Amino acid sequence: MTAESHQEPADEKTKRRSFLTGALAILCGGLATVPPFGAALWSFFDPLRRSSGAATFLPLTDLTNVPADGQPRQFPVIADRVDAWTGFKAEPIGAVYVKRDEGSDRVEALSATCPHAGCFVELDKAAGCFRCPCHNSSFTLDGGIVAPSPSPRSMDSLECEVSKSGAVSVKWQNFYSGTEEKVARK
Amino acid sequence: MTETQSPDTSSEAHVPASTRGLGNWLDSRTGYRALIQSALYERVPGGARWRYVWGSTLVFAFMTQVVTGLVLWASYSASAQTAWESVYFIQYEMTGGWLLRGIHHVMAQAMIVLLALHVMQVVIDGAYRAPREVNFWLGLVLMTLVLGMALTGYLLPWDQKGYWATRVATNLAGLVPLIGPSIQQLVVGGPDYGHHTLTRFFALHAGFLPATLVLFLVLHLSLFRKHGLHAKQPITQPDAMFWPDQVLKDAVAMLAVMAVVLGVILLPALRAILAGEPIVSGHLGAELGAPADPSEPYAAARPEWYFLFLFQFLKVFEGWGATGEFLGAIVVPGATLGVMFLMPILGQWKLGHRFNVLFTIAILAGAGLLTAMAVHEDYYALWADRSAFADVEKVLDSTGGDSEKIAAALGHDKKKIADFENRRHKLESIRRSEAFLSAVKQAGRDADRAVELAGRPEKIPPTGALSLVRSDPLTQGPRLFAQHCASCHAHVDPSVKGVEREFAKGSAANLFEFGGESWVRGLLDPKQVASAAYFGNTAHSEGDMVSFVSEDFADKEVWKQADKEAVVFALVEEAGLLKGTENTKLVKRGRELIADTDRCGSCHPYGENETELGYAPDLNGWGSTEWVVGIITDPTHQRFYPDTNDRMPRFGVASEGGLPALTSEQIELISRWLRGSWYRPAASEKPGAAAGHP
Ligand code: FES
């Protein structure tokens, strides 16, 4: 290499010229690929912009369907749902377990979505507990975690409202799974 | 490789030793330096030239299609209920989707142009000659694959345009002897167009064809490297290396191609800015027509512009029936491709080469000419002056087109007749072109409306956008009206000048804004009630309603102005079309007057009055959707005109074992359209409203 630096200036000139040409070629070629790659990335990341919207109270059932016996009962959550371009009317979008303890007016709701990795938690009536079929997390009928458990937290409780006329509604939300903290998805 | 062999390795001197170490390690494992070396330091005999850029731009165009196509794929859904819908979503709701789709769409067209240029350059330069014959053939295969991808891509949005163009293309494929029908059925995915047409076209477009293309491209490029670049003679410049001179030229050409593509996409935006209109990003780039509908005629059906010459070429064989189509769509294009395959062999002789060049130029010029002809025919009415043919139209009108009568009208003058025939042909071309242009306009309106409906907050129902369009009064109303009602009823704004002529043609009332205030005012206007816009051309022209309006109702003693107003507003309120609240007080009074058996109620049943049904139409809910549905379904029903119905068919009543002329859904669509009840986006929901003006 050192030998080259002692060559004549004319050669230096061609070298500089060819360096500039090369640089310009890379610049032009690079610029030409910006629009397709830019557009591709721009639209590819579109899903990150989307959110499921603010959580709202959805009508669930009537209080008479939730006897005060401390037994959880499963109800579907019905709501209008938008999936990209399709709008679904009054579709089941999830499920909750609702229970009322003996002698209590308070209605409690648990999301059926497992906090571990999102499977559908089942109610094991015989054993008197909740059990997730995926990795065997167990929960008490109050949703409390039964150690040892793959699930890092208790089942997710959902806010409930009972109107004067006895209509039960639930604030439907999804939460991040796998975390100790219960954090609502946006 | 030694230092002396590589012309430009000095850059390595600037690389820190550690990186060089890594580079050396990688090189010893992969030999990448030799690879780059051989890729970049290809000898270009006679130096870099612009005429060699076409192949590189084609590779660039293809890579662009791969990148944009993959991301489009990530959002596309190939089924009859989701293809249009997902493309709508990409185009109108996904960030940057319009640009992504726009680049893919316009670059596809650019690719066709580049392909033509590349073929031309290769043939003119004689680059197909020995030893490069095989590479030329590979190139022809690549060309066919690119055309195949263009053809299959056109269908994927599943809009009217793509759907009808593809129907034609696949039907033509069916003309191939013996195997044609099977080919067609295989491509279409069954005997009918639907889900499997889309899944198959998509698999072809994004799978089979590009995979094959990549394979042939690799072969094409490696043979290109094997034989080296074919230099255009005479060589006047010293040889140079591919890098950097030719690469620069290639890169500049790629950039230019990209700039043109972006220009085509963004030009409408510039135009909008200059015109001071809001820019709707969804309207940029590729069009999206109304959803494909096999039951909806589409007179604007045309293939994409680069296939227009084939479309026009078929017209040459018009009147030859299926043989003509077979010749035009299969034999001639096939023979052309066949000749091209023979080119390398023909090119061995000097004369053969000349023939090849002439042939290529002739084909391209012919295609250009045919394209120009197609465009000229379609857009003829834009520059032809129809009014110059008024006399021809007059003669045609008066003679009904009968050649005997025309000859008589022209005094049997041969020269005049010949001249007349000539101009008549021109007039027909104008009319055809006008029909095409109005179909294009209609297609645009339908597309806009479909997009508007898809953008409702409720979004598209699971049954797809077509069901939205089919149940839209604004889209279907005018069509159904034109088909079933317009032979008797007009539907024109009466305030338009010269509209009386339109009314005179009809035999029933003008239904423009039926049930609205101005319609009711006209009905109760002594000057208008017996005019052609209302009862004038009907059997009721001398009926009791006409005499009531022109005598009693005009009598200022009996009907005070305020009472007349009250009746108007009460009727409009019955129709559910009363706007604002300032007249609601009058409505109550109006209702009493209508029910009054000394006034309207003497003939019309209304409210509590005990007037019997059957003599005059029931005014309960008059003009409401339900009422209009009722009268269209069966005008002879007790509520309407059981004895005095004037020629109006019972559209919703079927004769035994038959089907009614209109289904109840269709009748409802007409009624809702007449009453102006259809979805209108709130100002804030309009796409692009945010970018709009104050
Ligand atoms: S998902 Fe429920 S235990 Fe893993």
Q: What labels describe this entry?
A:
heterodimer, A: 186 residues, Rieske Iron-sulfur Protein, 2 domains, four-stranded antiparallel beta sheet, 22% helix, disordered N terminus, B: 694 residues, mainly alpha, Cytochrome Bc1 Complex, Chain C, 25 helices, disordered C terminus, binds FE2/S2 (inorganic) cluster
What's this model, at a glance?
The complex is a heterodimer of chains A (186) and B (694). Chain A is α+β, with helices and mostly antiparallel strands and 186 residues long.
What this model shows, in words?
- The complex is a heterodimer of chains A (186) and B (694).
- Chain A folds into two domains: 46 residues; 115 residues, Rieske [2Fe-2S] iron-sulphur domain (Rieske Iron-sulfur Protein, 3-layer Sandwich), CATH 2.102.10.
- Helices cover 22% and strands 31% of the residues of chain A.
- In chain A, the strands form three sheets. Chain A has a four-stranded antiparallel sheet, with no helix packed on it. In chain A, strands 5-6-7-8 form a four-stranded antiparallel sheet, with no helix packed on it. A three-stranded antiparallel sheet of chain A has the order 1-11-10, with no helix packed on it.
- In chain A, 25% of the residues are buried.
- Chain B has 694 residues and is mostly helical.
- Chain B folds into four domains: 234 residues, Cytochrome Bc1 Complex, Chain C; 69 residues, no CATH class; 62 residues, no CATH class; 216 residues, no CATH class.
- A two-stranded antiparallel ribbon of chain B has the order 1-2.
- The two termini of chain B are 69 Å apart.
- At the A-B interface, helix 2 and strand 3 of A face helix 3, helix 4, helix 5 and helix 10 of B.
- Bound molecules: FE2/S2 (inorganic) cluster (FES).
- FE2/S2 (inorganic) cluster binds next to loops of chain A.
